[in-house]
Design goal:
The structure is a single chain. By secondary structure, the chain is mainly β. Helices cover 6% and strands 59% of the residues. The protein has a 7-stranded antiparallel beta sheet. The protein is elongated, with a radius of gyration of 21 Å. The mean pLDDT is 81.
């Protein structure tokens, strides 16, 4: 059975730091799609590789399990606080499609990761070793669309993240979040 925690049932914080290398950096530009600080005029993609740090904290967890799940949980008590940190190896692919006389740029990228090092701190400590044996994994998926005319541009950008946090039997924890935004901007200069 799966239970999705409502954000009103706990307090949380998270941060993530991504570092990546673009193998085809002469033709493909991440900033052209995501920060608009560069302009890419021809379609191109690239294999990506990098390292990332991910951290999450959850506390004041106030959830009531359905009656049928309480029996299967046995003596297990839901942690009051969970802190997680991982150092990950990432590899993926990104592509920018430039269309409509170079006015439209569409972007898609996916960067799965696998944990090289992970650390969980659970309060109270359940004294169970199983959770230390699982493989941590996750990923980041980004997409954007950009319409640009001379020095003005407008667009849409989105990100989807997910990470496995712990495998403390009988509970398996997956953190996922997404965001989407609309932007408009202009450059004080014009590209040739």
């Amino acid at each position: 059975d799966q239970i999705k925690l409502d954000s009103r049932e706990f307090d949380s914080w998270r941060w993530q730091l991504n570092n990546y290398y673009v193998f085809n950096h002469r033709k493909f530009s991440y900033p052209a799609a995501l920060t608009q600080s560069y302009k890419q005029e021809k379609s191109a993609g690239s294999v990506l590789a990098g390292l990332s740090l991910y951290s999450l904290g959850i506390e004041n967890i106030g959830i009531t399990f359905p009656a049928e799940m309480i029996e299967s949980l046995g003596s297990f008590n839901l942690p009051q606080k969970l802190e997680y940190f991982s150092f990950n190896l990432n590899a993926g692919y990104a592509h920018n499609w430039v269309t409509y006389q170079r006015h439209v740029l569409l972007h898609f990228s996916i960067m799965p990761d696998i944990g090289l090092y992970k650390r969980n701190k659970i309060t109270p400590d359940p004294m169970i070793d199983e959770e230390k044996k699982y493989i941590s994994y996750g990923g980041v998926c980004r997409f954007s669309s950009l319409w640009q005319l001379e020095n003005h541009y407008i667009g849409l950008v989105g990100t989807i993240n997910f990470h496995t946090i712990s495998s403390l039997k009988p509970i398996w924890t997956l953190d996922s979040y997404s965001r989407i935004g609309i932007f408009y901007g202009f450059r004080a200069y014009k590209y040739k």
